[in-house]
Amino acid sequence: MYTWSFAPILQASDLFLWGAWITVVYTVGSIAIGLVLGLLLCFARLSRIGPLSWLAQGFQELFRCTPLLVQLLWIYYALPLLLGFDLANWAAALITLSLYAAAFYAEVFRGGIVSIDKGQSEAGAAIGMSGWQVMRRIVLPQAIRRMMPAFINQSVTQFKNTSLISVISVAELTYMASIVNGQTYRPLESYTVLAVLYFVILFPITKFADIVESRTRGGH
Amino acid sequence: MTTVPTSGARETVLEARGITKSFGSLPVLHGIDLSLTSGEVVAIIGPSGSGKSTFIRCMNMLEVPDSGEILFRGRRVGSKFRGAGELLGLGELRRHVGMVFQHFNLFPHMSVLENVIEGPVTVQRKPRGEAVDIAMDYIAKVGLAEKRNARPDQLSGGQKQRVAIARALAMQPDALLLDEITSALDPELVGEVLGVVRSLAEQGMTMVLVTHEISFAADVSDRVVFMEGGRIAEQGSPDRVLHNPDNERLKTFLARFHA
Ligand SMILES: Nc1ncnc2c1ncn2[C@@H]1O[C@H](COP(=O)(O)OP(=O)(O)OP(=O)(O)O)[C@@H](O)[C@H]1O
Ligand SMILES: [Mg+2]
User: Fold this and answer.
1) Of A93, B143, B148, B223, which one is least surrounded by beta carbons within 10 A?
2) Rounded to the nearest 5 degrees, what angle is found at the Cα of B127, between the Cα atoms of B125 and B128?
3) B41 with B221: CB under 8 angstroms?
4) Is the CB of B25 under 6 A from ligand 1?
């Protein structure tokens, strides 16, 4: 019978806390960059300029149809050979996570925007609004409400995905757990604490997403 | 029956010349001419699919015609990117020519008042206070002053459509385009909306209305246009077109309403 012993793990609690903090930083950072890029990507995709739209779609498919881990390895180990200079692991991690987030957010935004009835933009146009005014005043406020649940879900996934950057030695939560494991030889405790930490952070957020979702449903 | 405020020669407000339009390989409009003088009310009737909506949407360029032109007070309307400076931009046209839709298309994320001030504030750049004054004036005119803070989903169909009319009027347009604005309403709510249109006609508002309410068209319009297969098949005074038609197809069409 295995005897659980959390004492050595607790001694390393500052490593876990630091790791959790780094995970949050990469998540928030890549979500912020991903939001901006995703919005640009979405507008590029919806634009009537053919090449721009195809380019945006190509980018999206590239990031949606390859595993994030592969993207990470490629950008960290392969891309520098093309660039001619090395990328720091934190930079490769942030770039990859941000581009990945952008590809998925762009799809969330696009879905929200095209779900708004055409009559809405026509009513805006009919009072003389420009295309941009229609987008900003009429379409986006309604679309954002509608895309909120998908946006939160995608962000939860983004949080979990940051665990992959441990493979290029970014000292986030998962990486710290393996450090603690190496020091204590207690994989069961180390990785159980790791899983519990992810769960404790993400469970309330997914519950919140459920509430938002039922609200938006009820509102229509 | 419409009273025109000025006694002088009636000015042409909006004019369509030789409008054609196809959707893909489906020709819908085959060269339509229609001119609208100040204070005039024109009713467009015709069977389903005859192109009435497509045509009225061409008049404010929500649908861009394949050929032909729209003129507002003598100025050709066109996309400014393409043409020379004397063209009237689409935004400018729509600031002067309002439209009300069959399905209201109110902005669901805004209150009644916000719906109505949206045009004056965002498009005409009026100060908010002034826009509210103008908006409240029209909201009161359509009888919804006490609903100014309601959301569209708290209103009946008839109330929604009256808000949509107020929203168009708040731009203080030179003409209004109304496309079957009572077709989506329960029968008992049609009257309140037609009442608003009737009083607009009495105040001399220039209007084009597509309608299936034949007796209302007879009552309120100065001219009735019968469209069929993407063409104007007949037009004239309500009395001549609706009560003494000589066009066979028009007779068949009207017979359905007298039955
Ligand atoms: N956006 C569109 N794309 C393709 N076809 C269209 C489109 N809009 C209209 N049509 C077609 O054009 C024809 C004319 O339609 P339109 O809506 O102008 O007729 P209508 O006279 O307003 O009919 P109704 O009385 O039913 O409203 C129809 O055959 C319709 O199916
Ligand atoms: Mg129609």
Assistant:
1) B143
2) 110
3) yes
4) no
The verdict on the CB of residue B7 being under 6 Å from ligand 1 is no
Distance from CA of B98 to the nearest CA of A (A): 6
| pTM greater than 0.90 (yes/no) | no
Inspect the interface and report whether the beta carbons of B95 and A129 lie closer than 8 Å. no
**Helix, strand, coil share (%) of chain B residues, nearest 5:** 40, 25, 35
Residue type, position B26, single letter: L
Q: How far apart are CA B73 and CA B13, in angstroms?
A: 5
User: What separation in Å is there between the alpha carbon of A203 and the centre of ligand 1?
Assistant: 50
- Selection from B105, B110, B118, B103 nearest residue B171 by Cα: B118
What tokens does B129 get? Answer: 């206070």
Give me the pLDDT at residue B246, please.
83
Q: How far apart are CA A187 and CA A189, in angstroms?
A: 6
Q: Taking residues B120-129, report their average pLDDT.
A: 96
Q: Which residues pair with B87 in a beta bridge?
A: none
3-state SS track over A7-38: HHHHHCHHHHHHHHHHHHHHHHHHHHHHHHHH
CA pair distance A198, A205, nearest whole angstrom: 11
- Please provide the average confidence, as pLDDT, over all residues in chain A: 91
pLDDT of B1 reads 45
Residues B244, B237: Cα–Cα separation, whole Å:
10
Q: What is the pLDDT of residues A165-180, one digit of tens each?
A: 999 988 889 989 999 8
Q: For residue range B80-122, what is the model confidence (pLDDT) as tens digits?
A: 555 556 788 899 999 999 999 999 999 999 999 999 999 999 9
